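Quick check before the chapter quiz. The format below is the same one you will see on the exam, so make sure you can read both the input and the output lines.
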Amino acid sequence: MNKLEVKINATKESSYPIFIGENLLENAYDYIEQYTKANNYLVVTNETVYSIYGEKLKSNNSKFIILPDGEIYKNMDTLNRILDRALEVKLERKDAIIALGGGVIGDIAGFAASIYQRGIDYVQIPTTLLAQVDSSVGGKVAVNHFLGKNLIGSFYQPKLVLSDINTLKTLDIRQFKTGLSEVLKYSFIEKSCKCEKHFNFLEFLQSNRTEIYNKNPEVLKKLINICCKLKSSIVNKDEKEKGLRAILNFGHTYAHAIEKLTGYDKYTHGEAVSMGMKLIFDLSLEINCIQEEYYHTATNLLKDYELMINLKDEFNHEEFYESMLSDKKVSDKKINFVIPIAPKEVTIKNNIDKKTILQGI
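Here is the expected output.
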């Protein structure tokens, strides 16, 4: 088992552990009780995850709320259902919410914890690759609004993250690829993460594709560990996205517009991100920020991992641009793009003209 620490602004009070290993769900409360003082727990999960792993989280002190599955349900109505359930089971300030599921469950359960009685403890138990490498770490919690993705939320850190890689065995190939989109993202931004250790992550992914797709436990543990270390190195320095943390949005400006305009139910988040990353590499090449050699290296990696990279929809350009303008990454009415500039390195630009932004749409 691997254990690493997220230390927000290097303060002990805000630090929390990430546990990465096998069979962690078997003794989940042994870990949870070390980091919370809760007498009761509300486990937030969805129908799919509950049917597989719900029994492992049942105890005399736990109550459940089982939500429908899908990004389309990440909204204020579902948030209110969680809050209603917390009140119904009389959750107190010293109690805790447990998020058991993927990124949608983690985001909405964490947001509920952040506002219930002005904030109670919560625990992340991510069961998808996307959640284990990305969304469960860093404390971004939110719901979607019809005007855009994750527009209503807060920064609220969990007490611990428990990533049991055995849960990845039950992921179908589509959901596994969804997580791989976020994994590949880290390989494109590694040098800009300001992590003390260099992992050669791009090379690791190039040489371990077969082992990753075969879900080799040791390779998966290393992969998740690298992603979490890269993300935590950013979050440690910039919890609330005042600067450095924005690079984690690589590919996401296009992706969020794709998700919004297709109703959050046509593509998974990872599929939108993989298409968004391809569009951002196209954009970077067009404005002469990267050389063709790296462009082909990066886009070939996306192809080698069989990710969705080509838009299958015809979007109205004005609607697409307006959707990007409503994204939370807009500043002074300018769209901030995380642009690749060299192997594993990115920068932020907001002076790209509208025609160039939309030429790949």
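If your answer matched, good. Residues 2-171 form a domain with the Rossmann fold fold (CATH 3.40.50.1970).
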